[in-house]
Amino acid sequence: MMVLQDKTVAIVGGGPGGLTLAKLLQQEGIRVKVYERDFDKNARVQGAPLDLHDESGLAALKKAGLMTVFKNSFMKGADRKTITNEQAEVFYSDHDEKPEENFGCGHFRPEIDRGTLRRILLDSLQPQTVIWNSHFLSMERQGAGWLLHFKDGNSAYADFVVAADGANSKIRPYVTDSKPFYSGIMMVEGTVSHASRKVPRVSSLLKGGKIMAFGNERNILIGQKENDEIGYYLSFRWSEEWGEQGLYDFADRTTVLEWFEKEYYDWSPVWHELLENTIEPFILRPIFCMPADEDWKIHENVTLLGDAAHVMPPFAGEGVNMAMLDALELSKALLTDKHTKFTQAIEVYEKSMKKRAAVAALESLENGERMHSQNALKMMLDFFSSHSNA
Q1: What CATH code is carried by the domain that includes residue 203?
Q2: Is residue 87 part of a domain?
Q3: How far apart are CA 223 and CA 214, in angstroms?
Q4: Can you give the pTM of this predicted structure?
Q5: pLDDT tens, 15-28?
């Protein structure tokens, strides 16, 4: 008998990892609720598109029976990339050689809009699975399980709790004292709507795919989103205190433009149209990473998933894929009849999760160093040229 037989599961956090786990458990008859702080399903989903990998994100979708709808929903050609210098001069493009889709090839990494992926997962769940407007505050032991408390005054009991509440997880301290460290990289995120009309020069370079622009230890990373939107990140080295001291007001476009002209002073005016047409406010994102050697003792009926367990820089495209693979592996551990105790299932899951997350985090940190080095353009050109057939 599986350890979840006649048990209830609470997943805190309705991102891709949490929703994937909910689907995988629910299709086996497990009673599960997802507690999400967003007000409702129509809340705007921030962030650039996601590229899913065959052995992780896509593997989880296959197990969940969602590959058909995914194939009908991903953005064809959005994985194609253009590499430029700071003057918007193109040094590499795979637009003419990369097929629109190549499912079954391990190197194919189809892109999907974050909002679309969330809708696919939400639509696959039973009604009322997600409890919206549930801002987690705390939890306490009650019997063999946990009593969870939320900002709106509601409480809920669960036999088993999964923290899928992101980099700033409120549940992580119940499991481990480990804390993420600042990587030394800061990002400023922006989104532009009606991009083909508002930012025509950038859109013509983007061609529905991705742009990676390198210059003077700074990057601009741009990705096509649905509905003629594009998302971008200004990525650069800076001390953590830079953001904490409030030296710049990122709710104010004029201030951000002044900052950009100072810090990206030798970059082409082509890029200015991005900032001039960004939907306010700009979002400041210091990039953190959990220690590669992190460890903690196994807890009876609570575990971590995704960024709550192993937040890492985005420079290897592993974040969402690791989270969805977490969901896949955790569901397998919980649903097998080989384990008679939660601790046995958690031990199997966490041992594997920690090991592969450490490898992915190290790769992400190393890529971040390369991408923000003086010779970043050459290094990235060499890398992608050597993988041009991938």
Answers
A1: 3.30.9.30
A2: no
A3: 15
A4: 0.94
A5: 999 999 999 999 99
